[in-house]
Structure prediction request, 1190 residues.
Amino acid sequence: MASASTITAEREHYLNADYGFRSWLLTTDHKRIALLYLISITFFFFIGGFFALLIRLELLTPQGDLVQADTYNKLFSMHGQVMIFFFLIPAVPAVLGNFLVPMMIGAKDLAFPRINLLSWYLFIVGGGVMLYTMLTGGVDTGWTFYVPLSTAYLGTHVVLAAVSIFIAGFSSILTGLNFIVTIHRMRAPGMTWGRMPLFLWSNYATAIIQVLGTPVLAITLALVGLERMFHLGVFNPQLGGDPLLFQHLFWFYSHPAVYIMILPGMGVVSEIIPCFSRKRVFGYEFVALASIGIAVLGFLVWAHHMFVAGISLYSAMVFSFFSYLVAVPSAIKVFNWTATMYKGKIYYSTPMLYAMGFIGLFTMGGMTGLFLASLGVDVHVTDTYFVVAHFHYIMVGGMVMAYLAGMHFWWPKISGRMYPEAWGKLAAMIIFIGFNLTFFPQFILGWTGMPRRYHAYTPEFQVLNVLSTAGSTVLAVGYLLPMVYFLWSLRYGKEAGDNPWGAAGLEWKTASPPPTYNFEETPVVTWEAYNYDELPEEVPVVG
Amino acid sequence: MEKIISGKVYFTVWAALMCLTVTTAAVSYVDLGQFSIVVALLIATLKGSLVVLFFMHVKYLNVKTTLLVIVAGFFWLAILLLMTMTDYITRAWS
Amino acid sequence: MSDSSQALATHELRHHFEDMEQQRDASSMGMWVFLITEIMFFGGMFMAYLLYRYEYFQAWQEGSQHMNFWIGTINTAVLICSSLTMVLAVLAIQQGRRRLTSVMLAITICFAITFMVLKGIEYHEHWLAHEFPGSAFHFAGIDPRHVEMFFVLYFVMTGFHALHVLIGIGLVSTVLYMNSRGHYSADYHNPIENVGLYWHFVDLVWIYLYPLLYLIGHHHVG
Amino acid sequence: MFPNFPIWPVRAATSASNLDALFIFLLLVTGMVTIMIFILVTLFALRYRHDRVEKATPILGSLALETTWSLVPFGIFLIFFVWGAVIYFGERTAPADSMDVYVVAKQWMWKLEHADGQREINELHVPVDRNVKLIMTSQDVIHSFFVPAFRLKQDVLPGRYTTLWFHAIRPGTYHLFCAEYCGTQHSGMIGSIIVMNPAEYEAWLSGGGGEGSLASTGQKLFQQLGCGSCHRSDTQGRGPNLVGVFGKPVLLEDGRTVTADENYVRESILNPGAKIVAGFKNIMPSFQGVVNEEQLLSLIAYVKSLQGSQPGGIVSNRPAVPNVSVRPRVK
Prediction:
C-alpha cells in the first residue's frame, strides 16, 4: 500500500503544498475546501449559539424582561435559520464528507472539484446575505417562513433572508450532486458498493435528499419572495391562495432536511463504533440499506408537521403511518450499533464517548419522535417545547455529538496532530451533561403545555426554564473547549502518524495529513469494510 | 464509447414532434369535457418521451445508473404531487 | 480520429479522472443529476398549478381562454426546431465536423431568440389587456381573484422558463465560442453534450407548459 | 401538587383522559426500550472494556436478529399508530348535539361568540358536561387554539373555518394559548377557558348583555344586505332557497357535489362565482370586504338556523335544495 513515511517534516502534503490566500481561495482540493467549510460553519455555529444563549437568558424569568418581544422573535428566527442552513446541513457533508468521501473510495478528488469550490462560494455569499440581514435588523419569521405572516404582515427583512437561504440551498445541491456522481463514478478498483464504508452510504443517502428536496425549498422561497414583493397571490388567502400549500411545499423539503442533518451523523457513528470495538459493524447490509430507506421514506412523511394545521383526516393518517415506517430503519441502526459493541474490545476514546452519547441521545430523540408521529399525541404536544426538545435531541444530541465525534476521530488525519485526550473526554462529559440539563426539562415543559416561540410565559413554567437555562451555560462551556484545544493541538499536539486508531478504511492508509492527491498511487481494494479481525487488536494511541 | 445516431433518426423524431404539436393544437378545438386535459397531457407525455429518449439519448445510454437518476427524478415529482393531493382530495370525505 | 485531436483530448483529461471514459460518464451523470433538481424546482410550481386548477377549475378555464393560442403554438414549434438543431450540433461534433457544429449552434440561438421575442410580444399583449397581476389587474368575469392567480402562475411558470431559455442562450453561445476556438473535437465534446441536455430539458418543460396553460380552456373560443 | 413545577397538565376534558392513557402507554414502552439500550450500551462498554478482553469476537450479523428488531418495533408502532389515529378521529368529529361557539382570532386576541349572542374576548365560558364545538377562523395570519388541559389544539386559518370540539369534565379555569407563531405579541395571545357548573353557567348567560342570538343578528344583516330579495323562502327567487340547505349535499352547475358546510357558505358569500348551484346563474355580487369575519359568522349562524324552521322540509320544484339522490339535474 502506498503509505508515506512517518517523518513528516519535509514531506509535502495538502496543507503545505502551497501557501497564501490565493492558494486557499482558489483551491479545488477537496481537503482544502473542507477546511474552508470548517472555518465558515464554525463561525456560524458560534453566532447561532450566541442567539441561543440570549434566548435561554430571556426565558430565565416568565416576564419578557431582557429583550423586547420583537427582538426575541428575531433571536429564535435567526437562531433557527443560521443553525439549520448554515451549520447543521453543511456540517458533516461539507466538512467531513468533503474531506473523506474521495479518500474513502480511493479517488484523487470529487468528480467536480471546481463545482465543489463554487458550492463553498455560494455558501459564503448566502452566509454573507444572512449576516447582512442580521446586521440591518434581522428577520422574525421563525425558520419556517409561514405564510401569510411572512408575506403580508412582518416588516422585517424576509426577502433578504429567503434569498440567503435560496443561495445556500444551491450550495447544498451542488455538494449533493458532487457526492452522488463521485460515489457512482470515482470508486477505486475493487471498491464495490458492498465494500463501501457506511459513512459513504449515509452521505450518499444524504446527497439524494439534498438533490431532490432542496430545489422545492428554493422555488417555495422564491414564491414567498414574489408574493411579498409584488403581491402576487400564491399562498395568501386574502389574494385567493392557500397557506397550507406553502406548508406542504416547505415541509416536503424541510422534513427530509432533518435527515440531511442526521444521516451523515449516523455515518460517522458507524465508523467510530467498529473502530473502538475492534470488530466489524454488526449487520453491515442492514445499516447501509437503512440509510437509503430513510432517504426514500423520509420523503413520505412531511405532513406530520401539519396534523393540526387543518389537513384532511385521511391524509393525516397516511402520513402518520409512513412516519412510523421511517422510524423502523432508524431503530435498526440503533440496534446494530449496540450489537456491534457486543463481544468487542472497547476503548473509551473521546470519539467513542461521543458516539455512545450519540446512541443514547439519538435514541431518546427518536423515541420522542414516536410520540409526535402518533396523531392523537401530536395534537397536544406539537408547537410546544416537547417538539423543541425532540428535535434538539436529534440535531444537537444526535448530529452535533456525531459531528464532534467525527472531528475528534479524523482530526489526526486532517491536521496530522493529536488533540489532548484528557481534555477531549472532559469536554465530551460536559457536553453530555449540559445537553441533558438544557433539553430534558423542555420535554416536561412541552407536555405540561408551554407553547414554543413564547417571549413571555405563565409563571408555573419557571422552574423548568431555569434548569434549562442553567444547562445551556454548561453546554456553552462544553462547546468552547474543543475549539480551544483543537487550535492548541495544531501547534503543540503530538504527531499523529498515518493511523493512530489502527482503523480500517482507505483514508487511514495514506499519510496524515494526506498528500494533495490523497494517494501516491490509486489503491486497489481487496478487502471488506471494517476488517478489524485482520487488523491489530490494540488501538495504538488509547491502548 | 458513445454511440453515434444517424441524422435520419433525429429528423424523424422532429417530424413526429411537429405532428403531435399540430394534433394537440387541433384537438383543443374539440370539447372533450374532462378528457381534454387527459388527451393534452397524454400527447405532451408522448412528446416528452420522444425528446428524452432520442434527443437526450436516453435510449442509447451506456450507463444504466443515469436511467435510475431519471426515474428517481420523476418518481419524486410524483411523490410531491400525489401525496400533497391526498390531503386536498380527501378533505371532503369527513 | 486524428493524432492531434487525440492529443487535445488527453490534454482535456482532468487530473483526478483515470481516463476520458470516466470523465465523460461522470460529466453526463452530473448533468442528469442537475436536471432532476430542475425537475423538482419546476415541480413546486406544477404543484401549485395542480392544486389551484383542482380547486378553482372554472377560473382556470377562464384564464386559459385569455392566452394567445397562436403564439403559444408557434413557440412550441420553435422550441422543437431548436431542439433538433441542438441535437444536430451534437451529432456534428461527434463526427468531428466543427464548422457544421457552429452553424447548428448558431441556428439554435436564433430559434431561442425568436422564442423570447414572441414571448415578449405575448407579455406585452397581456400588459395592454390589464392581465398583469397586481393593482392594475382587471378581469370582468366570474371569480376574478382566482383568474388573477392563474395569471400569477402563468407568469411565474413561463417567467422561470424564460429565464432558463436566457441561460440556455448564454450556454449555447459559450460553447459556440469555445467551438470556434477549436476546443472541441470528436473525442472531447462533453460541454456541448451537456448544454444539449440542458436545452432539451428547457424544451421538455415547455412541452408540458403549453397544454397546461394554453389548451385547457381553448375549445370555448374555438 | 407543585404549583411552580408541574409535571403533568390538568385533565379537564374527556379528550384529555383518552390521550393520557395513550401517552402513558407510549411512555412505558419507549421508556423501557430506551432504558434497555442505555443498559446494554453501558453493560457492553464495561464488560468488554479493552483490558478485559483479549480479542474481539468477529460477528458479522444475524438475519434472525435483524428481522426481529425490524418486525417487532414495527408491530408496536402499528399499535401506536392505530391508537393515535382513533383518538384523532374522535376529537375531530364533533357530535351532532354540540353547542356552537364561534371563534375569530386576530393579532393578538381571541374573540369568541356564543350562539346566544354573548361575546367574549380572550375568555370562554362553557358549561361542564356539554359538547362544545368551536368554529374558528382568523382575520389575519395563522393562529392556533391550544388548551393544554383538554389536550387539544387546532390551527386557526384565515379564509377558512376549522373546527374543534370538547367535552369538559371538570369546572375550573384553564389556559388558552396561541400555539402557532403569529408575530410580535404571539406570547401575549393567551386567554382562559372557564368551565362552569350548569347553574353557574346559566347565571352567567343571563348576566351577559347579548344583543339577541347570533342567528338573529345574522337575520338582521341578511335583510339589511338585501339577500332576501333573491334568496327567497319560496321557489321564485333568483338565488337558491336557503331553507334546510345547511349540512346537505348541493349539486353544482359543473356537475360536482359539495356539502353545504360553514366553508361552503362562506365561499358562496365572498366568492359566489366559485361554486354555482345547478340551475342558477352567476349573478350574485361578491361580499368580499363588505362583511367582516364576525358578520360572516352571524350570517352562517342564520343560514344554519333555517334548518328546522320548516319542519318536514317543503320540497321545492327548483333545485335550490338539491338532494342529489332524488333530484335530477335541471339545466
About this structure: The interface with chain C takes residues 102, 107-113, 115, 173, 177-178, 180-182, 184-186, 211-216, 218-220, 223, 226, 230-234, 239-242, 245, 248-249, 517, 522 of chain A (CB under 8 Å). Confidence is low (pLDDT under 50) at residues 1-8 of chain A. Chain A has one domain: 25-534. Residues 25-534 of chain A form a domain with the Cytochrome C Oxidase; Chain A fold (CATH 1.20.210.10).
